[in-house]
Amino acid sequence: MLSQKTIDIVKSTAPVLEVKGTEITSVFYKNMFSAHPELLNIFNHVNQKKGRQQTALANTVYAAAQNIDKLEALLPTVKQIAHKHRSLGIKPEHYPIVGEHLLGAIKEVLGDAATDEIIEAWADAYGVIAGVFIDVEEQMYVEAEQKEAGFRDFKPFVVAKKVKESDVITSFYLKPQDGGEVPNFNPGQYISVRVTIPGQKNTHIRQYSLSSAYNEEYFRISVKKEAEFDPNGIVSTFLHDEVEEGSAIEVSAPAGDFYLNEENTEGKVALISGGVGITPMMSMLETIAAATPKRPAAFIHASKNEGVQAFRSDIDDIMDGLENGSACYILEKPENVSSCHFSGYVTKEILSTYVDSDTECYVCGPAPFMKAVIMTLKEIGLPEDKINFEFFGPAMDLSSVDEKEKVRS
């Protein structure tokens, strides 16, 4: 338990973190990686370069400071982050390292304003917060391990099949190297893929949504090849160009808190995606078709053009098997207007055709796309608890997202 004095000090310094948070976390990551370069095998280098990880951590630290006397309010955020940590292989021994360098960064940035009393209070608070994360993550490790066919850490898998889905997206069917089965997962969850790339000093880990309904034989991920000059493309380019059928890669157990509510078997559902955000929606759609084919379901997908649109024939086939299913394709710049229902961007008029205030909506895609869609769903009258969404990468504040990019191929 934290003393009231510690709570008061932490809460009184929270406004400073709101202003200096990203500066503090930037110094934190720089110093930590300098002292512990081995941690670069875990953290996403691209999110570091783009500043997303620093901002996400700053927001988390600020929220923890604000709620230090009622940490239960942070539990949903803790669980979301813990899913990421478990899929990356974050362990209890990493937390003292993080704490040491986070406190050091606060002292470095704030200077004399960070008195010994303030640093001691933050050290006590960090210990409590770290304990919460460690406990939640251990529960997740145990749950993943105790599932039928489950496992705790990364496990060797083999690429059983490689299928090109569009000009930019390729599916990889992954089977356990030991010949066993794969554990069950919730439709919409992701796995981490860890690869060693020739010429690269560190291993690279990326999360990819599972793009098919559960079956005991394999995981399927469908990966968009990013531009080679884009730092984010180093792993996707390696998977597309170097990984072939028979290649071995390491995979984590499924994780994530963005998934289809399978308990709602009759209520209307809309799966709304932009670009490669289609991947978790395919898992959800296939699950609906197999388990609740009578459920009213709309599949709304936006992409740039026909060439980059994935799974079109698969979606059409699934819709034929649903009693009350409808698909809507929006292409920003169609080569043939007859190949889509609408050209341009997702609009309120389009969404209103498929969504009402009782529809359970799932949204995934580039952040600007999600911001536009979520704002529109709220205008239509959907309550927040009906809108489920997931970011690819660290969580972001939608209010800060630039809407200049509506969809991504």
Automatic annotation (TrEMBL):
<feature type="domain" description="Globin">
    <location>
        <begin position="1"/>
        <end position="138"/>
    </location>
</feature>
<feature type="site" description="Involved in heme-bound ligand stabilization and O-O bond activation">
    <location>
        <position position="29"/>
    </location>
</feature>
<keyword id="KW-0479">Metal-binding</keyword>
<keyword id="KW-0408">Iron</keyword>
<keyword id="KW-0561">Oxygen transport</keyword>
<keyword id="KW-0216">Detoxification</keyword>
<dbReference type="InterPro" id="IPR000971">
    <property type="entry name" value="Globin"/>
</dbReference>
<feature type="active site" description="Charge relay system">
    <location>
        <position position="95"/>
    </location>
</feature>
<keyword id="KW-0813">Transport</keyword>
<comment type="function">
    <text>Is involved in NO detoxification in an aerobic process, termed nitric oxide dioxygenase (NOD) reaction that utilizes O(2) and NAD(P)H to convert NO to nitrate, which protects the bacterium from various noxious nitrogen compounds. Therefore, plays a central role in the inducible response to nitrosative stress.</text>
</comment>
<dbReference type="InterPro" id="IPR017927">
    <property type="entry name" value="FAD-bd_FR_type"/>
</dbReference>
<dbReference type="InterPro" id="IPR012292">
    <property type="entry name" value="Globin/Proto"/>
</dbReference>
<feature type="binding site" description="proximal binding residue">
    <location>
        <position position="85"/>
    </location>
    <ligand>
        <name>heme b</name>
    </ligand>
</feature>
<feature type="region of interest" description="Reductase">
    <location>
        <begin position="149"/>
        <end position="409"/>
    </location>
</feature>
<feature type="active site" description="Charge relay system">
    <location>
        <position position="137"/>
    </location>
</feature>
<dbReference type="InterPro" id="IPR001709">
    <property type="entry name" value="Flavoprot_Pyr_Nucl_cyt_Rdtase"/>
</dbReference>
<dbReference type="Pfam" id="PF00175">
    <property type="entry name" value="NAD_binding_1"/>
</dbReference>
<keyword id="KW-0560">Oxidoreductase</keyword>
<feature type="binding site">
    <location>
        <begin position="275"/>
        <end position="280"/>
    </location>
    <ligand>
        <name>NADP(+)</name>
    </ligand>
</feature>
<protein>
    <recommendedName>
        <fullName>Flavohemoprotein</fullName>
        <ecNumber>1.14.12.17</ecNumber>
    </recommendedName>
</protein>
<dbReference type="Pfam" id="PF00970">
    <property type="entry name" value="FAD_binding_6"/>
</dbReference>
<comment type="similarity">
    <text>In the C-terminal section; belongs to the flavoprotein pyridine nucleotide cytochrome reductase family.</text>
</comment>
<feature type="site" description="Influences the redox potential of the prosthetic heme and FAD groups">
    <location>
        <position position="390"/>
    </location>
</feature>
<keyword id="KW-0521">NADP</keyword>
<dbReference type="InterPro" id="IPR009050">
    <property type="entry name" value="Globin-like_sf"/>
</dbReference>
<feature type="domain" description="FAD-binding FR-type">
    <location>
        <begin position="152"/>
        <end position="261"/>
    </location>
</feature>
<keyword id="KW-0349">Heme</keyword>
<feature type="binding site">
    <location>
        <begin position="206"/>
        <end position="209"/>
    </location>
    <ligand>
        <name>FAD</name>
    </ligand>
</feature>
<feature type="binding site">
    <location>
        <position position="190"/>
    </location>
    <ligand>
        <name>FAD</name>
    </ligand>
</feature>
<dbReference type="GO" id="GO:0008941">
    <property type="term" value="F:nitric oxide dioxygenase NAD(P)H activity"/>
</dbReference>
<dbReference type="InterPro" id="IPR023950">
    <property type="entry name" value="Hmp"/>
</dbReference>
<keyword id="KW-0520">NAD</keyword>
<comment type="similarity">
    <text>Belongs to the globin family. Two-domain flavohemoproteins subfamily.</text>
</comment>
<keyword id="KW-0285">Flavoprotein</keyword>
<dbReference type="Pfam" id="PF00042">
    <property type="entry name" value="Globin"/>
</dbReference>
<dbReference type="InterPro" id="IPR017938">
    <property type="entry name" value="Riboflavin_synthase-like_b-brl"/>
</dbReference>
<dbReference type="InterPro" id="IPR039261">
    <property type="entry name" value="FNR_nucleotide-bd"/>
</dbReference>
<feature type="binding site">
    <location>
        <begin position="391"/>
        <end position="394"/>
    </location>
    <ligand>
        <name>FAD</name>
    </ligand>
</feature>
<feature type="site" description="Influences the redox potential of the prosthetic heme and FAD groups">
    <location>
        <position position="84"/>
    </location>
</feature>
<dbReference type="InterPro" id="IPR008333">
    <property type="entry name" value="Cbr1-like_FAD-bd_dom"/>
</dbReference>
<keyword id="KW-0274">FAD</keyword>
<dbReference type="InterPro" id="IPR001433">
    <property type="entry name" value="OxRdtase_FAD/NAD-bd"/>
</dbReference>
